[in-house]
Write a structure and sequence with these properties.
- The structure is a single chain.
- Helices cover 60% and strands 16% of the residues.
- The chain is α+β, with helices and mostly antiparallel strands.
- Strand 4 and strand 5 form a beta hairpin.
- Helix 3 packs across helix 4 and helix 3 packs antiparallel against helix 5.
């Protein structure tokens, strides 16, 4: 009996149309081999990959949360700060132009914060001059001839008294200066007052700033890790 060229030989192989024998490697055997290799790779690699991913997530979460929590905690421990405010109205010279009025108000704003004046007031208030200078602010109210002067202190009554002292000293010198220069005069629009709500500290704002810092650090870490992996693949 004549065997077909593609019939199996005694060894269990098969022959192609030319009569060449090939070992058995049917699709089921090959699929089984690849599946076993894939399962082995997943078994060996996945646990370490999962641990690495979990560790990275923990580090990133710490980088984001720690600065925010620390900043908020530190801010909440700071003493409460109060602001005393007084408004001064500018009385320009008769011949002053619009541009001249703006310049005169800017001049008064600068002179109100001059170092010699701040030092004298700080000495009487028992506060460091640098600290008082940082807590003092002068701003022009938009669309008006009013200067708003604000002083921050942990003692609301001391804030008001110190501000009154500073304004009184300045108005006395400004009146003398107005005689020889065209900067106009200032008058108190209303007595100084302490704001109802404290102006500091603000744990929410401090926490938000810390959160932004944490996000920046986390992004920087991710960028460095990606750069390191990219270099590892090229070597």
């Amino acid at each position: 009996m004549t065997r077909s060229p593609t019939s199996c030989g005694a060894a269990g192989g098969r022959r192609d149309p030319a009569g060449r024998a090939h070992p058995p490697h049917g699709p089921p055997a090959l699929a089984h081999h690849r599946g076993a290799a894939a399962v082995g790779a997943r078994t060996a690699g996945d646990p370490r990959r999962r641990r690495g991913t979990a560790l990275l997530a923990l580090v990133l979460l710490t980088l984001v949360a720690a600065p925010a929590a620390t900043a908020a905690a530190l801010a909440s421990r700071q003493p409460t700060e109060y602001a005393a405010v007084v408004e001064l109205i500018h009385q320009p010279e008769d011949n002053s132009t619009v541009e001249g009025v703006d310049r005169e108000m800017a001049t008064h704003s600068v002179l109100l914060q001059r170092r010699p004046l701040v030092q004298e007031v700080a000495a009487d208030a028992g506060r460091p001059a640098d600290e008082l200078s940082d807590d003092l602010s002068v701003e022009a109210v938009d669309g008006s001839s009013v200067l708003r002067v604000q002083l921050v202190d942990t003692d609301p009554e001391r804030a008001r008294e110190t501000l009154d002292d500073l304004v009184d000293r300045y108005l006395a010198s400004a009146d003398r200066l107005a005689v020889t220069s065209d900067i106009g005069r200032l008058r108190v629009l209303a007595p100084s007052d302490v704001l109802d709500e404290p102006v500091g500290p603000d744990p929410v704002r401090a926490g938000a700033a810390g959160l932004l810092l944490g996000i920046f650090l986390a992004g920087l870490l991710l960028a460095l890790l990606r750069l390191r992996r990219g270099r590892g693949r090229t070597t």
